[in-house]
Design brief:
The protein is an alpha/beta fold. A four-stranded mixed sheet has the order 4-7-6-5, covered by helices on one side. The chain folds into two domains: 1-59, Roll (2,3-Dihydroxybiphenyl 1,2-Dioxygenase, domain 1), CATH 3.10.180.10; 73-133, Roll (2,3-Dihydroxybiphenyl 1,2-Dioxygenase, domain 1), CATH 3.10.180. It has helices at residues 15-25, 53-59, 81-93, and strands at residues 7-12, 39-42, 47-52, 74-77, 97-104, 110-115, 121-126. The longest helix has 13 residues, at 81-93. Strand 6 and strand 7 form a beta hairpin. It contains three helices and seven strands; from the N terminus they run E-H-E-E-H-E-H-E-E-E.
């Protein structure tokens, strides 16, 4: 298996609310492939999909369970420390809940967290050891 993440799908309680948050609030480009019960966003690498939580659980043969933290966080890395504060402010203005204000990280970076309307936690991080490439992708050391 090739080491690649192609798509991340978030199970959401209200698809229209979540589309408004990501498209209108954060300004992410909604793909024309979005239709019916699914929305796709271009993110400069992997695709972010939004799908009703109950349908996503049924598709994977799982119980829908409680919304929010499911043992996973998503991350949005930025090129500078200042951008962490700016992105967190943008997310808050779009209706996100700030889970952890930006602060120095023990590993040498600067990071904070917000939750989208369904409680999915997003880390916003500047990591001086993982620079961003021209396309915005994280450049891990070999």
């Amino acid at each position: 298996m090739e080491p690649r993440i192609s798509l991340v799908t978030l199970g959401v309680a209200d698809l229209e609310r979540s589309v408004r948050f990501y498209r209108d609030g954060l300004g992410w480009p909604l793909s024309s492939a979005s239709a019916g019960d699914v929305a796709f966003f271009r993110t400069g690498g992997a695709v972010l999909a939004l799908y009703p939580r109950s349908l996503l659980a049924a598709d994977a043969h799982l119980s829908p369970g409680a919304p929010g933290f499911g043992g996973i966080t998503l991350a949005h890395n930025v090129a500078s420390r200042e951008q962490v504060d700016a992105v967190l402010a943008e997310a808050a203005a779009a209706g996100a809940v700030i889970l952890k204000p930006a602060q120095e990280a023990e590993w040498g970076g600067y990071t904070g967290y917000f939750a989208d309307p369904d409680g999915h936690p997003w880390e916003v991080a500047w990591n001086p050891y993982f620079p961003l490439g021209p396309d915005g992708s994280v450049q891990l050391p070999k």
